[in-house]
Amino acid sequence: MTDRSIEGSLHPRGTAGGPASTRGRDYSLTGPEARRAVEIGLASAEWYHSDVPRKVMKDLMRRTDGPAIRDTVLWLVLLVGTGSAAVALWGSWWALPVFLVYGLLYASVADSRWHECGHGTAFRTDWMNDAVYHFTSFLLMRNPVNWRWSHARHHTDTIIVGRDPEILLMRPPNILAKTLAFVGLPHVFLGFATLVRNAFGNLSPAERDYIPASEWPKAVFWARVHVAIYAATIGLAFATWSILPLLLVGGPRLYGSWHVLMTAFLQHGGLAEDVPDHRLNTRTVYMNPVSRWIYWNMNYHVEHHIFPMVPYHALPRLHELIKHDLPPANPSIPQAYGELLRALWRQRREPDHYIRKSLPPGAQPYRDEFHSLDIRRA
């Protein structure tokens, strides 16, 4: 498949007719860009949806327990099996590759399960979604209350500056910091610090913005539960004078997150900001079967954002139904990274630069009318 993307910047958000401004934007949820997004109608905007017959969509959205139970049991068996093998091999060089697999299962596989169960679509049975969501939230050092509401905002205002709390690649990009993220830095320490802060009853202004006040006590409670377990793990490490407990609990966030970061950067990186059309700010990438299982089909990310209530196992079918209305999917992870890295390198000096992919013949035109407004603070 040929690369049909068009890389370019729109003048209205930089200096008209000249190079874009190198000044970074205010990505906070309480700053001037947040207020401007509300004023011009970008906040909670009406998003573009591809046409899918009602009966077909109802079938695609049907929840069932079977696929998720199968995948979850397989994941837990592999997680326990590799963890047990790593303990048995402790002290031997053979433990190293086993720990690497265990870390991948702990951090990267858990992230996709956390995401889908947070949506409540992985299982038909609600308590199963909640159980897996809370378990994976602990593994990933995420307050389950904060992140449920944070992710809801991410879907409501996807890559809307000042509204979306989950923008991973801000402009201009800090390439060194994002490279360190592949080994969990600084996300692990920031995540743990957030849990500790929440455990003491302290919610940040951003958290208070997207979490309803009625949910604040729950956020504090679950932070205290998580911190208590991590404190016990640290205590065990000191009591046994061994790092083994930390390699099994918490530590895998450092050495097992590389796959989830690899895929997460591709979700929205290098694409448009401030547009109510997921085809402009989200990327679908064809991936190998192993990565698709780890990622739980979230490589069909445009499809997921347009129709977030479609379960992960139905996303390939949804893709086939609407791909005529979407930009061509990136054919592989390496090709997608080539596209992304070129854009990030250019955004270092031209923060307004973004990738604009062409649509297939017959597709509905993009909704990008907000790009005609200068929403950058003067």
Any overview of this molecule?
The chain has 378 residues and is mainly alpha-helical. It has 2 domains: 5-61 and 271-372, no CATH class; 66-258, no CATH class. The protein has helices at 32-39, 54-60, 66-88, 95-119, 126-139, 144-156, 175-180, 187-199, 205-210, 216-240, 244-248, 252-255, 258-268, 278-281, 289-295, 301-306, 315-322, 333-347; strands at 5-8, 354-357. The protein has a two-stranded antiparallel ribbon. Helix 4 crosses helix 5 (126-139). The relative contact order is 0.18. Mean pLDDT is 92; it is low at 1-22 and 374-378. This is Fatty acid desaturase. Residues 92-333 form the Fatty acid desaturase domain. Keywords: Membrane, Transmembrane, Transmembrane helix. One of its GO terms (biological process) is lipid biosynthetic process.
DSSP strand tally = 2
User: Biggest β-sheet: count, sense, barrel?
Assistant: 2 strands, antiparallel
The helical percent reads: 40-55%
Number of helices: 18
Strand content: under 5%
Widest sheet: strand order? 1-2
Mean pLDDT: 92
* SSE succession: EHHHHHHHHHHHHHHHHHHE
Structural class: mainly alpha
Oligomer class: single chain
Shape, please?
globular
Instruction: Report low-confidence residues grouped into runs of 5 or more.
Output: 1-22, 374-378
Work out the radius of gyration.
Answer: 21 Å
Q: What is the CA–CA distance across the termini?
A: 42 Å
Q: Tell me the domain tally.
A: 2
Organism: Histidinibacterium lentulum
GO biological process, one term: lipid biosynthetic process
GO molecular function, one term: oxidoreductase activity, acting on paired donors, with oxidation of a pair of donors resulting in the reduction of molecular oxygen to two molecules of water
Protein name: Fatty acid desaturase
